[in-house]
Structure formats: structure tokens, C-alpha cells
Design brief:
Number of strands: 15
Oligomer: single chain
Helix content: 25-40%
Largest sheet: 7 strands, mixed
Order of helices and strands: HHHHHEHEHEEEEEEEEEHEEEE
Distance between the termini: 54 Å
Number of domains: 2
Structural class: alpha+beta
CATH class of the largest domain: Alpha Beta
Radius of gyration: 19 Å
CATH topology of the largest domain: Beta Polymerase, domain 2
Strand content: 15-25%
Number of helices: 8
Length: 273
């Protein structure tokens, strides 16, 4: 019997198959998938098609959702963690760059996104052992994250101060605040994160290297050569939003999505677009 999949279902079918193929087989299909923008678009569209709870809200209501998460003490601890990491990486000349929400924060806010609560850095997976040995000589502690069901290492580190902050999650293996180090690999033209869900999006090396510097809080940090182009492949950068990401204080996913135009809240938060 022939069954024709409706167009709306077919889009999500392709999305699921795209993610499954990347996660389960990981390599044989990479060369084909990373050349295709269709996979990137499917993943991004699937993520962005949920309900925007802030669509009809007044700005004062929106600001109760898009609000500062970190306390002054937490921000201070995270800045210390980042500074220590930078000193170590710079001393042994390990390249790294801001990624994901932290790259967006650097580009749009010149620091943390006000409603973000961690810091994201990307590094080449070939440097993983060198970095681990170097960080083990500092006060920082790193914890590898493993897949909830398969138990496989997902190429993400949580880096934090073991005697400071608050417990993260039920087991207290990690403390908050912390920074995330995401590891990537690539070929001659593209790089992609090895974290299962993030690996569906391949980024052009020509948009990334050579790295440049961007403001982040009171320091300059390495960022891609063309940060706007990289960010536009990941986000709608003219909108401020939250949802679908992790609340790092509780280790719970924020399922509700709030999205507003950046210019609508620009007088409440610094914007540099």
C-alpha cells in the first residue's frame, strides 16, 4: 500500500531522520549533510515553530520573563572561572572562541545576554587532552557530560569552582555557575559541534577563521571572523527570546518560548545591533 506523507509531517520526518542519522551513524553521511543547507533549515524551523507566549504581552509583562538571571555574586564567580580558563588557554596557545548564546551576547549586548546564565566556548576536539591536563593544575574542576540514555560522552564539559556556588542538578556533580566547553571537529570547509543535537548545523570555516576579538563584559575574547553570519545560521538575532534551552540553576529545560523584537526592549537592556 502506498502512503503519501503530508507536507507538514514530511518536514518533521526529515528533521528527525536528519538528527538520527547524525547521531547514530555520525560519519558516513556527514560529507553529504554538511554540504546541504536543508538540514540546517529543517532543524532551525522545527525549533522555532512553537508558541510564543509573549506575542500579545505588554513590554512590562515581557520583562518579567526576559529578566536578569545571575546575581552579582554568581556573575563574579563566572567571570573568575572565565578569566582562569583564558589564562590557561592563552598560556599554552590553545585556540578557543565564544559560541552559541555567549557569541550572541558578545555581538548584541557586549557581554552576557541578561537572561542567560552560563558561558559557552568552542574548542577543537584535537586539543581536549592538552586542555584537560592544563585545567587540572588550576582550582577549576571539569565534569564531562554523558548521554542520558546511551551513556556516551557527548563532547561537552562543565567547568566550575568545586567549593563555590550552588549544587547543579540532583546529584551535585556540577556546581553553578559554570562555563560550558563544546568540542567541534570538521573538514576542509566546515566545522560542527560533536554534541548530538548541535552537530546537525555545520558552519563554514571561511566565516570563522581567522578568529577576531569581540567585547565580552570587561574583556576582549576570541570570536568568529564573521560573527553576524555565524549567528544568523543559528538564531534570529533581531529578536530577544528564551525557551527550549536549559535553566542552569535547576538543570531543567525551559519549554515555554518568549520572543520579542530587540528594538522593543532596547531601552531596558543595552543593544549594539
Amino acid at each position: 500500500m502506498h502512503y503519501e506523507i503530508p507536507a507538514c509531517q514530511y518536514k518533521y520526518f526529515l528533521t528527525v531522520m536528519c538528527l538520527l542519522s547524525l547521531y547514530l551513524v555520525h560519519r558516513p553521511f556527514w560529507d553529504h549533510l554538511q554540504e546541504s543547507t536543508q538540514c540546517n533549515e529543517l532543524v532551525l524551523n522545527a525549533i522555532s515553530n512553537d508558541v510564543n507566549i509573549c506575542d500579545k504581552m505588554e513590554i512590562k509583562q515581557v520583562l518579567t520573563i526576559l529578566k536578569t538571571k545571575m546575581t552579582k555574586t554568581e556573575r563574579g564567580l563566572l567571570n573568575y572561572i572565565v578569566s582562569t580558563f583564558m589564562e590557561v588557554a592563552d598560556e599554552i596557545q590553545l585556540p578557543y572562541m565564544l559560541g552559541y548564546g555567549s557569541l550572541l551576547g558578545s555581538y548584541r549586548h557586549r557581554g552576557f545576554i541578561p537572561w542567560d546564565d552560563d558561558l559557552d566556548v568552542l574548542m577543537d576536539v584535537s586539543e581536549i587532552s592538552t586542555l584537560e591536563n592544563a585545567l587540572n593544575r588550576t582550582k577549576l574542576k571539569l565534569v564531562r557530560r554523558y548521554h542520558e540514555y546511551t551513556g556516551e560522552f557527548i563532547f561537552l564539559w562543565k567547568v566550575f569552582l568545586p567549593e563555590k556556588g550552588t549544587c547543579f542538578g540532583k546529584t551535585c556533580l556540577v556546581r553553578y555557575p559554570h562555563m560550558d566547553i563544546w568540542f567541534y571537529t570538521g573538514n576542509s570547509s566546515y566545522i560542527w559541534a560533536l554534541f548530538p543535537s548541535a552537530s546537525a548545523i555545520a558552519l563554514k570555516k571561511d566565516d570563522i577563521f581567522p578568529l577576531t576579538l569581540g567585547w565580552f563584559e570587561n574583556r576582549m575574547m576570541p570570536v568568529p571572523k564573521n560573527p553576524r553570519k555565524v549567528l544568523e545560521s543559528l538564531y534570529n538575532i533581531t529578536n530577544c527570546e528564551t525557551g527550549g534551552n536549559l535553566d542552569h540553576k535547576t538543570d531543567l529545560v525551559i519549554h515555554t518560548r518568549c520572543s520579542v523584537r530587540s528594538k522593543d526592549i532596547a531601552k531596558h537592556y543595552p543593544m549594539y545591533l
